[in-house]
From TrEMBL:
CDD domains: AdoMet_MTases
Name of the protein: Methyltransferase domain-containing protein
BP term (GO), one: methylation
Lineage, opening ranks: Bacteria, Bacillati, Actinomycetota, Actinomycetes, Pseudonocardiales
One annotated GO molecular function: methyltransferase activity
Length: 259
């Protein structure tokens, strides 16, 4: 593991709440709280186990990604490339990777923003963040244990936000979108990969049932794009594969919470 005290210090300066440095090397604003917000079901609880981080990046995430995106989906490496491109990352930028897991996307974003920039990986699971820190060599990366629904940053703090394979597991996804719009700078971009129910009814019923059993919300196709537009974004990409959607938007003006 590379030591990234400079990146952690820069991250600490951006936060609007105090943070402590965990023994593993990430900043923590949750303290003794076992998690941020209520659990939404089996899928989310699995993310907080100690075993899953050991197999997440190499086996679990690619396998389940392929299951949900289907044979024509981009695959995990393709997702990383696509997210980086859609965020239009530039050297010196600040990018936030929400629900970063073991940091696969965060590390790629660090390469895009370079040492002048800062790539922040945010997750609520200590086991995931411990693995992420251990896997990271890039100097411009810092990890944060915090609430993914309401990241602890002042308004207009970051240039880009990625949230892949997580929004559908949040108890309050609409509030998360409000938060993303609030902390993005004008002209900043967000890219999301989340669930997408099929439009035709037999498959739609099956998609909904699967979501209920696993504790994952099944969004309609086009629902996320509409939610971003309502918060002041223009949509720059909208793609569907299997039961997933990738949506990217550029913040034109923050119009406030959509409660």
């Amino acid at each position: 593991m590379a030591d990234q005290p400079s990146a952690r210090g820069r991250l600490a300066e951006l936060l609007d709440v105090p943070a402590k440095t965990a023994a593993a090397g990430y900043l923590d604003v949750l303290g003794d709280a076992p998690q941020a917000g209520p659990s939404t079901g089996l899928a989310q609880r699995a993310m907080r186990t100690t075993l899953l981080p050991q197999v997440y990046e190499r086996y679990w995430r690619p396998a389940f990604g392929r299951l949900f995106t289907g044979p024509f989906g981009p695959g995990m490496a393709g997702e990383v490339r696509l997210a980086t491109e859609l965020l239009a990352l530039r050297p010196g930028g600040t990018v936030l990777d929400v629900a970063c897991g073991t940091g696969r996307f965060t590390r790629a974003f660090a390469a895009a923003v370079g040492e002048p920039g800062l790539a922040i990986g945010l997750d609520g699971a200590p086991s995931m963040l411990t693995r992420a820190v251990a896997e990271t060599r890039e100097e411009s990366v810092a990890y944060l244990r915090a609430d993914a629904v309401e990241p602890p940053f002042p308004p207009s703090t970051v240039d880009a936000i990625c949230c892949f394979a997580a929004l559908h597991m949040f108890a309050e996804p609409e509030r998360a979108l409000d938060s993303f719009a609030r902390i993005l700078r004008p002209g900043g971009r967000v890219v999301l990969l989340t669930s997408a129910r099929h439009d035709w009814w037999p498959a739609r019923i099956a998609d909904t049932a699967g979501g209920i059993l696993s504790g994952q919300r099944m969004f309609d196709r086009g629902e996320i794009a509409a939610a971003l537009r309502a918060r002041g974004f223009r949509i720059v990409a909208e793609r569907f594969a299997g039961v997933t959607q990738i949506v990217a938007g550029e913040l034109i003006h923050f119009v406030g919470a959509r409660g």
